[in-house]
Amino acid sequence: MKVGVIVFPGSNCDRDMYHVLTDVFKLDAEYFWHEKGLPKNIDAVILPGGFSYGDRLRSGAIAAHSPIISDVRKMAEKGIPILGVCNGFQILVEAGLLPGALLKNTSLNFMCKWTNLIVENNNTPFTNKLKLHQQIPIPIANGEGRYYVDNETLKKLKKKNQIVFRYSEVVNGSTDRIAGVCNEDGNVVGMMPHPERATESEINPIDNKPSSLIFESLIKTIGVKN
Amino acid sequence: MATFNVHVTIENKPGISDPEGETILNDLVLKGTHSAISKIKTAKMLKFTIKEKDKKSAKTKVQEICDELRIYNPMVSKVIIDVFDA
């Protein structure tokens, strides 16, 4: 069982993610440079946070055309769990694997703060060990984190249960306080907050258990004994 | 073949908030004496230089590039394309 962590030029949360996967959750993980393909024996893929291509054009827009994305797309179609965190979420949106857009925060500021999420869908590979409406204390760190969808898409997201996380209060102006969504099949999940920064008690002053359950959900999904 | 300068303006669709434009309007322009201004919208412009047979095909080609490479996110943005002789 292997988890692939994709590295784009400008990724800066790749090592934090790798550390959490391997040192905290004892998973077999491997980095994959964006210009190469993904091997077939990968059981889950994570697109980490950062500033791929320096956010040029707009966050995630250029990385969405990296060669590795065609393999990510194939794996998404096969139902393999794929998680995009922060810039990884932006890349999945720009690649068309998730709906919507991520705009500049209403404040126009880069926001780095602790937020509180509410679990709205606990049927995804990354939330199946969380309780519905469970709260997750978790940090955000982004400038373009305001999730936007038009009314028609919002209705569709609600109908198909694609809203995975909401902020418990208004944070950055996101439509319907959305912090994370999934595709229709539920195997591709994107979220702006950083679970890899919240799973260890040493760096989580509130409660590291809920964020840990995001990774434990993945372990349950891909069938690894921890 | 001739050379054309093609200006691609990427701006928010109507109804998508533009907090930067609103700040420039409310906290800069309207705080001066320019009360005649009622709206400011921010946008990003890309300037392409392209060789094509005429202005029409230059515009079509650039529009195709913008759509194919998702130069703009159609959920929130639109592009306005203007062609000039180089």
Tally the beta strands of chain B.
3
* Rg estimate of chain A, integer Å: 16 Å
CATH architecture of chain B: 2-Layer Sandwich
For the record, the CATH class of chain B is: Alpha Beta
Number of domains of chain A: 1
Largest interface: A-B, 21 and 12 residues
Major sheet description of chain B: 3 strands, antiparallel
Query: Which CATH architecture of chain A?
Result: 3-Layer(aba) Sandwich
Helix content of chain B: 25-40%
Q: In which order are the strands of the major sheet of chain A placed? A: 2-1-3-4-11-10-9-6-7
| Helicity level of chain A | 10-25%
Total beta strands of chain A: 11
What structural class is derived from the secondary structure elements of chain B?
alpha+beta
Q: Strand share of the residues of chain B?
A: 25-35%
Describe the structure.
Helices cover 23% and strands 25% of the residues of chain A. Chain A is α/β, with parallel strands linked by helices and 226 residues long. Chain A has one domain (2-222): Class I glutamine amidotransferase (GATase) domain (Rossmann fold). In chain A, strands 2-1-3-4-11-10-9-6-7 form a nine-stranded mixed β-sheet, with helices on both faces. In chain A, a hairpin with a 5-residue loop joins strand 10 (178-182) and strand 11 (188-191). The termini of chain A are close together. Chain B has a single domain (2-85), classed as 2-Layer Sandwich (Mth169, Chain: A), CATH 3.30.1280.10. Chain B has two helices and three strands; from the N terminus they run βαβαβ. Chain B has helices at residues 19-29, 55-68, and strands spanning 2-12, 43-52, 77-85. The A-B interface holds A 57-58, 61, 64-65, 93-94, 96, 99-101, 103-104, 106-108, 148-150, 153, 173 and B 16-17, 19-20, 23, 69-71, 73, 75-77.
